[in-house]
Structures are given as C-alpha cells and as structure tokens.
Design goal:
Blueprint (H helix, E strand, L loop, with lengths): L10 H7 L6 E3 L12 H8 L6 E7 L2 E6 L4 H5 L6 E5 L7 H8 L9 E9 L14 E5 L4 E6 L22 E5 L4 E4 L4 E6 L3 E8 L4 H15 L22 H11 L6 H13 L16 H11 L1 E3 L5 E4 L2 E4 L2 E3 L6 H10 L1 E2 L8 H10 L2 E3 L3
Antiparallel strand pairs: 1-9, 2-3, 2-4, 4-5, 5-11, 6-9, 6-11, 7-8, 7-10, 12-16, 12-17, 13-14, 14-15
Helix pairs in contact: 5-7
The structure holds succinic acid and cobalt (II) ion (CO).
Length: about 375
C-alpha cells in the first residue's frame, strides 16, 4: 500500500531505494499537519524534571547550550530571534506524539528511538551539523529553511558547546512548511534555520556502535556465563625468576579464556534484553491506586490494553523481551503478544492466560487499560 508519508513510495520501495542511502524531501507528507502542541505547552514540558530539554542560543561561531529543567522566567528573558528550545522523547508524555511515531512502524521498533520537538524563533537554529542516525524532520507550525550537504569534510568548530561544522557547503536548499518532511540518512550535513516561529518534529533512530554492542554483550556474558575448572600446575618446574609470569602460565590462562563460547541463542537473548531496555533516564510511573486483579481484568477485557509509551516490547522466535526483561510465553499466547508488540495495543477480549501477566505489567506502569 502506498504511504502518503513517503511521498507516494511504498514502504518497501522507500527502504530499498532511500533508507540509509539518500536524502528525500516529501512535500505534504502529513496533509493538514499543524503540530501537536503550542510553544507555551512546550515550555511547560521543558520545566519538568522528568523531561529532557535543551535551549540553544546564537549563530555563526558563537553558541550557548543550556540544559533543562528550566523555569518560566528563563523564557521571558530570551531575545526575539536566534534561539531554539528542544524537548526530547515527546512521545513519552504526549499520546498524540506516540500516535505520530507509530506511523513510522515500517521501520523495526528496535531501531526507533524517540520523537523530539524543536521550537525556534526567527533565525533560530542548532547550527550546521551532522548526526550519526537517520532522521525524519517533519515541519509543524511555521517554516524552516533546510540546507543540506553530502560533504565529507566533517571537521567541527573548536570549543563550541555543541557539534557545529566548521565549514558547510550547501548543495540543496528548501523551505519546509506545515506537513512537509525531510528524510536524511546518517552523516548528511544539515542546517535548519527558522524563517518565522517554527516547530519541527524529528523522528530519531537508535544505532548502537560496535563498541557499545560489544561492551553490552560482554556484560551479558559476565552475568550468564558458568565455566568449569581452576588454574592447576601439577607439572610446575623451578623458575630462574620467581617474579616471572612463565609461558606455561600464559598458555594455561589462554586456554581457560578460550572456554568462553557463545551461540546465536546467547546473542538473541542479549539483543532482546539490550534493545528493549529503556534509556537510563526513563522511569515508569506505576498507578497510584492500582486496580486489583479482578477489577483490572473486567475493565481490560472490555477496553483492551495498550503499552505505556515508554515501554519497549520486542520478540525473536518464541522469546519475548519487555523493558530489558525476558520471558517465554506458552505457544498459544504468542500471537496475542506479537500483536501487542507490533501494534503496541491489543483489542479485547484478552486471552485469559495473559491477564495475570498484564496485571503485573499494569502495576509496574508498563501497560495501561486502553483509552476508549
Ligand atoms: C531542529 O529541529 O532544530 C534540529 C533537528 C536536527 O537537526 O536534527
Ligand atoms: Co540534526
């Protein structure tokens, strides 16, 4: 099916020809889109402890970066031009943002990170830079001029509090209005400057480095590995230097370490836990007066259930992972759990055998009774 979001390309064709390969401008990707919140509502979010926010001021070679939470008075002091307020993970606090993000589920959930929103006054920008991730930049209210470049010179300005390219060679330029969207693969340099009061929604992705994955996997191995044996030297010979680590000792240690083995099964177990783990700054809010199991079952079985927007539910084979924890459901529970993982909600009636698990997730703040 053709997706208006992708300018008439099917998701399969977008993935084949565009994703991770080249920029794409899509006029009217979300027809009628005017944004999800007002600048005032965004400023309120930037005052919250549990919301990650940044304020970027300046231009050229002079930049200032401040981290939230902010106070209302901080915003009253700002000039009329050249600043940008950024709020991260809008999808965690605004159901409409979670719904917008779900339009991008032609990309695996394990790759999806969050929806960030920026509000900029005229001339406001985060500077010419590049990101290491793919990004969809959807314009809400107002207009932003985007300039892009596939330059290979990625040298950064010294001493700036954020990543600003020292040189920027414009190759293409467009002014985006409400509903227009620009897709950029990693490392394409871009520079977006607000033409008027403007809000931009960025769909960001996760792409761990080899080093991050390897460190994570080594930690996983450390937690799960059991190995037999202990250092032993019945053939010990007299050494000229008691202080020396002998070749025989090194050889034995090497052989012991070589007992560390892993299979695809270990990799799957690690990947599921790692990729479903919420970011370290994510905290769940369990319901203040949780319903007991019977009341929960009655209501959930009428309305269905939805994952909390902060929850990450993934699966591989018959193994499921939610927020860093693993479990293997009974075979007849798998289709319902797969549907919940894919659509992030599950319509009633709920399989009876899953209700106890769902009640536990509800008590942890991971899952909710679906809104009508
Ligand atoms: C912005 O919305 O101002 C910045 C988004 C980006 O460049 O990735
Ligand atoms: Co960027």
């Amino acid at each position: 099916m053709k997706n208006p979001l992708l300018g008439g390309l099917t998701p399969a064709r977008f993935l084949r020809e565009v994703w991770h390969k080249r920029p794409l401008l899509i006029r009217n990707a979300v027809p009628g889109f005017e944004g999800l919140l007002s600048p005032a509502e965004m400023q309120q979010l930037a005052c919250r402890e549990d919301v990650e926010s940044r304020l970027i001021q300046g231009g050229g070679t002079r930049w200032q970066l401040d981290h939230g939470p902010f106070r209302k008075a901080d915003f009253r002091r700002l000039p009329k031009t050249e600043w940008t307020l950024l709020v991260q993970s809008l999808n965690h606090v605004l159901p409409e943002a979670d719904a917008l993000l779900s339009r991008f589920d032609f990309i695996p959930h394990a790759r999806l990170d969050d929806l960030m929103v920026s509000y900029a006054v005229p001339g406001g920008s985060v500077g010419p830079h590049f990101d290491s991730y793919d990004v969809f930049l959807l314009q809400g209210r107002g207009h932003r001029r985007w300039q892009i470049s596939t330059q290979t010179d990625l040298a950064l300005l010294d001493g700036a509090p954020l990543k600003i390219l020292r040189r920027f060679e414009i190759e293409d330029e467009w002014v985006l209005g409400p509903g227009d969207m620009l897709y950029l693969p990693p490392h394409v340099a871009h520079y977006g400057v607000a033409e008027d009061d403007c809000m931009t929604y960025s769909v960001g992705f996760r792409a761990p480095t080899t080093e991050e994955l390897a460190h994570g996997f080594l930690m996983h191995l450390q937690d799960t590995l059991t190995l037999e044996g202990r250092y032993a030297d019945p053939d010990l010979r007299l050494q000229a230097h008691p202080g020396q680590i002998s070749r025989a000792m090194l050889a034995q240690i090497e052989a012991m370490i070589a007992k560390i083995k892993w299979s695809r099964h270990d990799v799957a177990e690690f990947a599921g836990r790692y990729l479903s783990e919420p970011k370290p700054n994510v905290f769940f809010d369990p319901p203040e007066a949780p319903l007991g199991r019977a009341a929960f079952n009655r209501l959930a079985n009428k309305a269905g259930v939805a994952l909390n927007p902060k929850s990450r539910l993934l699966f591989t084979g018959g193994r499921f992972f939610i927020n860093g924890e693993a479990f293997t459901p009974a075979a007849d529970e798998v289709p319902a759990l797969q549907a919940l993982a894919d659509q992030r909600r599950l319509a009633a009636p709920l399989p009876a055998s899953l209700r106890e698990r769902f009640h536990e997730w509800y008590e942890a703040g991971w899952l909710e009774i679906d809104a009508p």
